[in-house]
Amino acid sequence: MEFILVTQQARPHVALIQLNRPKELNALNLQLMAELRDALKELDQNEEVRAIVLTGNERAFAAGADIKQMAGKTAIDMLHIDQFSTWDQIKKTKKPLIAAVSGFALGGGCELAMTCDMIIASETAQFGQPEIKIGVMPGAGGTQRLTRALGKARAMEMVLTGKSISAREAEKHGLVNRVVPVELHLEEAFKLAGEIAQLSPVAVKLAKESVNRAFEAHLEEGLHFERKNFYLTFASEDQTEGMAAFVEKRQPVFKGR
Ligand code: CAA
């Protein structure tokens, strides 16, 4: 891996992926995104990993897709390269994925953070879709996810003006889970990931899938999906253990079976 750093057990059952093109503010070139896709796929299959934290550095989570790499391309080149197809793996990741964001989260960087399940932001984080300023528009989910998170009026203003919002504004409007001092943002993400990693991996996976359905399907279908997955947790030993532990007033031990 050239552009990302992967630590499989950064904390017990929690993996860390760090975007690592600091000089380019972690601009997301094709190779970086392919590496990210492969790393997520591998961690998703690793039974020792129960949650994943994705981060950049203090100055930048990511300043967007690599403009230099895209600059000379035609529409047909872009169709052939289909660069956002590598992004599908992020959405397909079954384990909880938490973005720890500091500094710039712009364009594809904002979209990458929003594709994660939760966002812990540092006080210095700024979120924006500045593509309009370089004559394009968001291409990796920005118009959809920002609109669902912030509502039409705010998303429209951000997408059409390219102006960013601060971490505090993002928190106020529900785009991020919480804002913490910059030196604590990664630790706070680990804390959240660690809390989830203690719970049943089976139930966590099904619950994540169900919450995502709220975004992706009509309510009726989402409710049906959720109910089916709830019933399905009863096929796991973790459900038996979790409920037995509650009744016996002890801590459960979850094994992912
Ligand atoms: N692509 C390629 N290189 C980038 C980049 C990007 N998105 N963002 C920053 N860089 C590079 C700069 O070119 C510069 O490299 P050099 O030193 O070789 O010139 C280096 O990173 C540092 O950047 P700056 O000198 O510009 O740093 P700054 O502090 O003055 O400004 C910034 C920071 C405001 C984030 C500015 O870099 C910027 O505006 N970046 C582009 C943001 C952007 O437009 N993102 C959207 C990209 S398109 C997209 O993402 C499409 C999509 O939907 C996926």
TrEMBL record:
Cross-referenced InterPro entries, in alphabetical order? ClpP/crotonase-like_dom_sf (IPR029045), Enoyl-CoA_hyd/isom_CS (IPR018376), Enoyl-CoA_hydra/iso (IPR001753), Enoyl-CoA_hydra_C (IPR014748)
Instruction: Determine the domain of life of the protein's source.
Output: Bacteria
Q: What is this enzyme's class at the first EC digit?
A: lyase
One family name in Pfam for this protein? ECH_1
Write the record's keywords in alphabetical order, separated by commas. Answer: Fatty acid metabolism, Lipid metabolism, Lyase
What does the record give as EC number?
A: 4.2.1.17
Write one Gene Ontology MF term: enoyl-CoA hydratase activity
Q: What is catalysed by this protein?
A: a (3S)-3-hydroxyacyl-CoA = a (2E)-enoyl-CoA + H2O; a 4-saturated-(3S)-3-hydroxyacyl-CoA = a (3E)-enoyl-CoA + H2O
GO BP annotations of the record are: fatty acid beta-oxidation
Q: What does this protein do?
A: Could possibly oxidize fatty acids using specific components.
Similarity field: Belongs to the enoyl-CoA hydratase/isomerase family.
Q: Cite the PANTHER family for this sequence.
A: ENOYL-COA HYDRATASE, MITOCHONDRIAL (PTHR11941:SF54), ENOYL-COA HYDRATASE-RELATED (PTHR11941)
What is the recorded name of this protein? enoyl-CoA hydratase
Q: Which organism is it from?
A: Rufibacter quisquiliarum
